[in-house]
């Protein structure tokens, strides 16, 4: 896959974070190994994102930057679906997908390169906003159908850990896997989309979390740090989608004959409880409880929708 590395596209989805987007694009331009393409999906931003994107071509070689202005806000899920589609149409062999609130480290692609000879879905490490290492270790529990922390330890002696979950804050995926699992599902809009996408990838290839720092988180959020994970604040829309999109999780697990109905119910109850803890411990309110309940109710309707189909392979 050596030649494939030369056709790596960075896919960025942005919405109303012009300043952070500008910093991210500047960090991409500083990469020691230049990406083949940089694809930015503007999700109908209403701030000065358009101005940032007008001046962005000066940072890159001719034809290196591809900008797509979505006429409507399709959420992170829809944005990444569009961005990966554009990358595949352009002929990318690898897609490194990320939100607009991070920066990439200059040596990132050099650090990824050896692992790209071995794996086809990879996550690197990131620094948190304060510059401290953030150890992300989510892994789907098949019975509960939720990603859980699987370790507070270190990577194996070879410098990686296998997982089956993922995040669009830095997932690196090969075009061969995208062809098998299809584009990211835009129906999620936001929440669970990236974790499910990596889970789908894991049905076809090992998903590796490698001990290489490649990204720096930039956006500050209210949060509490627990032993196993962080809990950030979230919007009303995210609260609704966290519970609503459990319906999509149910459909995909069922599609792949991995669904345990009793375990799924327990996992959903645990997810609901975690969100209540987030409300109380991080946001110091119970406002938003109604959104969780509504999302849970609507997830039930989604599970019963006879017209639902998974994203098709490409």
Secondary-structure topology with pairs:
Elements (H helix, E strand, L loop, with lengths): L7 E7 L3 H12 L7 E6 L6 H7 L9 E5 L5 H16 L3 E6 L2 E3 L3 H9 L4 E7 L5 E2 L3 E4 L4 E4 L10 E4 L7 E4 H7 L11 H10 L4 E11 L5 E3 L4 E3 L3 H9 L1 H10 L5 H21 L7 H15 L11
Parallel strand pairs: 1-2, 1-4, 2-3, 6-12
Antiparallel strand pairs: 4-11, 5-12, 6-7, 6-11, 8-9, 10-12, 13-14
Describe this structure as you would to a colleague.
It is a single chain. With 314 residues, this protein is of the alpha/beta class. It is globular and about 50 Å long. The protein has ten helices and 14 strands. Helix content is 37%, strand content 22%. The strands form three sheets. Strands 1, 2, 3, 4, 5, 6, 7, 10, 11 and 12 form a ten-stranded mixed β-sheet that branches. A two-stranded antiparallel sheet has the order 8-9. Helix 2 links the parallel strand 2 and strand 3. The model has no long low-confidence stretch (mean pLDDT 92). Helix 1 packs parallel to helix 2 and helix 7 packs parallel to helix 10.
Provide a concise account of the structure shown:
With 314 residues, the chain is of the alpha/beta class. It has helices at 18-29, 49-55, 75-90, 108-116, 175-181, 193-202, 236-244, 246-255, 261-281, 289-303, and strands at 8-14, 37-42, 65-69, 94-99, 102-104, 121-127, 133-134, 138-141, 146-149, 160-163, 171-174, 207-217, 223-225, 230-232.
Question: How would you describe this structure in keywords?
Answer:
Spore Coat Polysaccharide Biosynthesis Protein SpsA, Chain A, ten-stranded mixed sheet, two-stranded antiparallel sheet, 10 helices
């Amino acid at each position: 896959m050596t030649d494939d590395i030369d056709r790596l596209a960075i896919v960025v989805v942005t919405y109303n974070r012009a300043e952070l987007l500008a910093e991210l694009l500047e960090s991409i331009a500083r990469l020691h190994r230049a990406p083949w393409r940089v694809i930015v999906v503007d999700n109908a931003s209403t701030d000065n994102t358009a101005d940032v994107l007008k001046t962005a071509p000066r940072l890159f070689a001719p034809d290196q930057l591809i900008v797509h202005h979505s006429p409507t806000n399709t959420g992170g899920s829809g944005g990444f679906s569009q961005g990966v589609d554009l990358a595949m149409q352009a002929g990318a062999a690898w897609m490194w997908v990320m939100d607009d609130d991070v920066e990439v480290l200059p040596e990132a692609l050099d650090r990824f390169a050896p692992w790209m000879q071995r794996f086809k879905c990879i996550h690197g490490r990131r620094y948190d906003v304060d510059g401290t290492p953030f150890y992300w270790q989510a892994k789907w529990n098949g019975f509960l159908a939720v990603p859980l922390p699987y370790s507070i330890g270190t990577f194996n002696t070879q410098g990686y850990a296998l997982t089956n979950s993922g995040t669009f804050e830095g997932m690196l995926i090969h075009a061969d896997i995208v062809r098998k699992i299809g584009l990211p599902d835009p129906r999620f809009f936001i929440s669970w989309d990236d974790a499910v996408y990596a889970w789908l990838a894991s049905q076809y290839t090992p998903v590796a979390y490698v001990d290489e720092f490649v990204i720096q988180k930039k956006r500050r959020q209210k949060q509490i740090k627990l032993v196993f994970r962080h809990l950030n604040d979230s919007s009303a829309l995210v609260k609704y989608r966290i519970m609503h999109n459990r319906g999509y999780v149910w459909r995909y697990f069922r599609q792949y004959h991995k669904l345990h109905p009793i375990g799924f119910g327990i996992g959903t109850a645990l997810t609901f409880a975690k969100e209540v803890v987030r409300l109380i411990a991080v946001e110091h309110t119970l406002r938003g409880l109604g959104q969780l309940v509504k999302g849970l109710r609507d997830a039930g309707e989604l599970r019963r929708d006879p017209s639902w189909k998974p994203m098709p392979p490409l």
